[in-house]
Specification:
The protein has 452 residues and is α/β, with parallel strands linked by helices. The protein is 30% helix and 15% strand.
Length: 452
């Protein structure tokens, strides 16, 4: 192996930038390829690296939540993405959400300023020589899609994902909205809320279900990912589905002391609070219909939309059939996959796969045969899902404790998440020590239950 030859990372999304950064920080030379802005996609709007096209949230930041645990594992390895997210954070209750422009700009500057990373702008249409990490994401170009298909010898899997709309803050009627977070989490007032009584909710539900949508072909109708269903698709499943989903009023009390029948939450998009996105309101309604329907929400009667809800095809491979636990293609081990194309779902998980792929590559470049990350930690549980799931029923997944091996000790229900987190931290520490990777220790609070 020529250890001086650069690793080619194809794709400047979250997985690609994290992978490139981790390799370069471990003195592995990197060429990072990004086709934007020379060639854009149906969802991106800028040429910045790590541009967020759907939500601006990286999910829960609770250290005992699986997503919060994954963030902390990544931070132990000096994650570029999590560090940038914390610097660009906006209030979002218990979640980590970012000013998406500041986030992408910060990452673009750091990647561009790293002496170990060569950033090349332009579409990659053929597989580079040497070690390659394909992190082209769910919006992989047609040319690269054909390259990957030739490597795999089988068709892709894919589902349809939708983007929530964004409104201008100045166009909102703040007299009809109130600041609050469910159960007072975060600063206790991180979201703008539009409360609805039963009559208003039923009228809104009817408007959503009756709105004209962009038609799908027959075979596409079963391809929606359950974790990101369009609003109208949820509404058609029952009159109360939205009330138990994105419009759930649980944990919220209006300023007059009443409990709303349903609530629309708006999360700030940037630090200046000039734009807000409608949380969970991803949609495939036609744009004129979206404006008509969403302006029936109290406080949004004169809303000006920066971006309407959209729908796009997300592509991923059948990873259990094609990947090993170190993210290598079984047919072509010099090639690794990272990001949503592997079948993980979400910004956070995409970046995590890029980090893991880089760890393995850097250890190999140092002459080691790396052990795989423990299945008991969040990073290892993602690889477990990608490589040990039933290939005949494989679907994208966010990180969750259902992907982890069961605890070997009994723990009270309220203590189980903490026990998972403690076991994960201890096992990751042991793995790093065995591989010669330096990471900071984790001190467990005394009240945390033992995991074994």
């Amino acid at each position: 192996m020529d250890r001086t030859r650069p690793v080619h990372v194809v794709g400047g999304g979250l997985a690609g930038v994290e992978c490139a950064w981790q390799l370069a920080e471990r003195e592995v030379p990197v060429v990072l390829h990004e086709m934007r802005p020379r060639r854009s996609t149906a969802a991106h709007q800028t040429g910045n690296l790590a541009e967020l096209v759907c939500s601006n949230s990286l999910r829960s930041d609770d250290p005992y939540h699986a997503a919060g645990l994954l963030k902390r594992e990544m931070e132990r390895f000096g994650s570029l993405v999590i560090g940038a997210a914390r610097r660009a954070a906006v209030p979002a209750g218990a979640a980590l959400a970012v000013d998406r422009d500041a986030f992408a700009h910060g990452i673009t500057e750091r990647i561009g300023g790293h002496p170990g990373i060569e950033l090349r702008r332009g579409e990659v249409t053929e597989l580079p020589e040497g070690d390659v990490v394909l992190a082209t994401g769910p919006l992989t170009s047609d040319a690269m899609a054909r390259v990957i298909q030739e490597l795999l010898g089988s068709d892709y899997l894919y589902f349809y994902d939708a983007i929530a709309p964004i409104v201008e803050g100045e166009s909102l009627d703040l007299d009809k909205l109130f600041w609050a977070s469910r159960w007072g989490k975060g600063d206790g007032a991180d979201y703008l809320n539009a409360a609805m009584d039963e009559e208003a909710y039923l009228a809104f539900h009817a408007a959503v279900t009756e709105a004209e949508v962009v038609p799908l072909r027959e075979f596409e109708k079963k391809l929606f990912f359950e974790g990101c269903l369009p609003l109208e698709e949820m509404a058609r499943r029952g009159v109360d589905t939205l009330r138990y989903g994105p419009m759930k009023p649980v944990g919220l009390t209006a300023p007059d002391g009443t409990r709303p029948h349903a609530v629309v939450q708006l999360r700030q998009e940037n630090l200046a609070k000039t734009q807000f996105n409608l949380v969970g309101f991803q949609s495939r309604m036609k744009w004129g219909e979206q404006q008509r329907v969403f302006r029936t929400i109290p406080g949004l009667e004169a809303a000006e939309f920066v971006r309407m809800g959209q729908i796009h095809r997300n592509t991923f491979v059948n990873s259990p059939a094609h990947l090993d636990a170190r993210y290598r293609l079984r047919r072509e081990p010099r090639v690794r996959l990272a990001g949503q194309i592997t079948g993980v779902e979400g910004y956070l998980e995409s970046a995590a796969t890029g980090l893991a792929a880089a760890l393995y590559l850097s250890l190999e470049r140092a002459g080691r045969v790396p052990e795989t990350l423990p299945k008991t930690c969040a990073l290892g549980s993602l690889a477990r899902h990608l490589t040990e799931s039933d290939a005949g029923r494989f679907q994208p997944a966010n990180v969750n404790y259902g992907l982890f091996p069961e605890l070997q000790v009994r723990a009270k229900r309220a203590e189980r998440r903490a026990a998972y987190a403690r076991r994960a931290a201890d096992d990751l520490t042991a793995w790093a020590a065995s591989q010669g990777v330096e990471i900071p220790p984790v001190e467990h609070p005394e009240e945390l239950p033992a995991a074994r």
